[in-house]
């Protein structure tokens, strides 16, 4: 099974693509250079049709940066429409060296791919100290048969609340424009090649995943196992489908003990613990947004994954289930009210309600990451002029992100900048 990325089901998406029979151009290889734009957010240029040459892709600033692809590129160009006279191509890019030989096959536009190269998503970086310390503890999980569920993920040792359990990389990333605009037989042909071009160890992991009931092999692999993630271009993140072969082994629970976050900057999925997990305990995540009402959860799980949920929460008493549902309804209501209070400048009210929201999350055993919650309080206290608490929570958040040890240091850097900002404000006040 696979964890759900909110608001889009790959299985539903693939079925929709098959049903739509969208037009597409012929499957072909491009041998000409694609225009590349500077790093960071690329200019939106949906009219570009060309794919980068096989081999080194050079950025527009003509720097020495580049990225070598392992195979000649294969591209599909959708048929032109009245409103899209020159649609851009989606191409298959494969690196067998990505993340120390894990490898990746990316089916996306040249613009998206250039964006990822420009922001360093394919680059390897030293592990943060906290991640190195985690490695010294030994593996946190193992993938084993789980009764009634096929394969699953079990804690191999005690895991602390908020600890990163798993760091996984995508074997395949697929743009939804490719899925929506390519003919089914073209789509399957490219997807088969994407899997074939992966390094052997990663390819075997993909091919060993639990299959869905779809008629064709690639659809049966992707259907129950893929996540949706956002990869950025100008104008906001674009939805892509990602296959993370180890994360896909994590089974569902309506009150999970873990959740995941995807980093575009590092092309990494990190799974972290909601609460302390004992050795031998199964690691679970929710396939659907945690605040989805129970009737909708059960219906969605049955329709899209074909099983009736028998997780511990669903097996508990009606009173226990209703208590959990009431806590989640209250969290949803509070979240909306907190945002309204923030926008209207009622910062004290927002702080009080944030503490209340956290209490409900604790009761339901699905609390947020501590530094994530502390970040939200820093801004509220700062806006409210409470520099004592703003300073306190800013330092707590910075320490929390440092101990968290994500491979993506963006949150840590943001916290560091916030501490510096608050220190500067405090210093200016002292000098008055």
UniProtKB/TrEMBL annotation:
Q: Which species is this UniProt entry from?
A: Cladorrhinum samala
Q: Name one Pfam family in it.
A: SET
Q: Which residues form a coiled coil?
A: none
| Name of protein | SET domain-containing protein
Record keyword Chloroplast present: no
Q: Where is the signal peptide?
A: 1-24
User: Does the record's keyword annotation contain Signal?
Assistant: yes
Domain SET per the UniProt entry, residue ranges: 133-288
Assigned keywords, A-Z: Signal
Give the superkingdom in one word. Answer: Eukaryota
């Amino acid at each position: 099974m696979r964890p759900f990325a909110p608001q889009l089901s790959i299985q539903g998406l693939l079925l929709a693509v098959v049903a739509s029979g969208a037009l597409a151009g012929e499957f072909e290889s491009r041998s000409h250079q694609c225009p590349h734009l500077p790093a960071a957010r690329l200019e939106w240029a949906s009219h570009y049709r060309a794919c980068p040459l096989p081999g080194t892709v050079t950025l527009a600033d003509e720097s020495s940066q580049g990225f070598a692809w392992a195979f000649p590129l294969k591209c599909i160009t959708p048929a032109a429409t009245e409103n899209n006279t020159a649609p851009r191509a989606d191409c298959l890019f494969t690196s067998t060296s990505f993340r120390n030989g894990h490898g990746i096959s990316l089916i996306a536009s040249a613009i998206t791919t250039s964006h990822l190269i420009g922001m360093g998503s394919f680059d390897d970086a030293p592990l943060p100290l906290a991640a190195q310390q985690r490695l010294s503890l030994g593996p946190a999980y193992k993938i084993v048969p789980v009764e009634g569920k096929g394969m699953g993920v079990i804690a191999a040792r005690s895991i602390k609340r908020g600890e990163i359990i798993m760091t996984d990389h995508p074997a395949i990333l697929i743009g939804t424009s490719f899925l929506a605009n390519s003919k089914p037989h073209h789509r399957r042909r490219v997807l088969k090649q994407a899997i074939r071009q992966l390094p052997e160890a990663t390819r075997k992991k993909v091919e060993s995943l639990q299959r869905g009931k779809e008629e064709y092999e690639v659809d049966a692999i992707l259907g129950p196992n893929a996540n949706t993630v956002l990869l950025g271009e100008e104008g906001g993140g674009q939805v892509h489908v990602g296959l993370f072969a180890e994360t896909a082994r994590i089974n569902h629970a309506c009150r999970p003990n873990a959740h995941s976050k995807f980093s575009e900057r590092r092309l990494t999925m990190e799974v972290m613990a909601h609460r302390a997990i004992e050795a031998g305990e199964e690691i679970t995540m929710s396939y659907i947004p945690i605040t989805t009402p129970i009737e909708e959860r059960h219906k969605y799980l049955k329709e899209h994954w074909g099983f009736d949920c028998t997780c511990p929460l669903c097996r508990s008493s009606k009173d226990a289930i209703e208590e959990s549902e009431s806590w989640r309804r209250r969290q949803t209501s509070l979240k909306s009210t907190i945002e309204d209070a923030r926008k209207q400048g009622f910062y004290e009210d927002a702080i009080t309600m944030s503490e209340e929201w956290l209490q409900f999350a604790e009761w339901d055993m699905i609390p947020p990451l501590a530094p994530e919650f502390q970040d939200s309080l820093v801004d509220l206290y700062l806006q409210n002029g409470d520099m004592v608490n703003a300073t306190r929570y800013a330092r707590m958040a910075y320490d929390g992100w440092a101990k968290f040890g994500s491979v993506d240091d963006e949150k840590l850097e943001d916290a560091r900048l916030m501490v510096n900002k608050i220190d500067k404000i405090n210093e200016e006040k002292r000098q008055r």
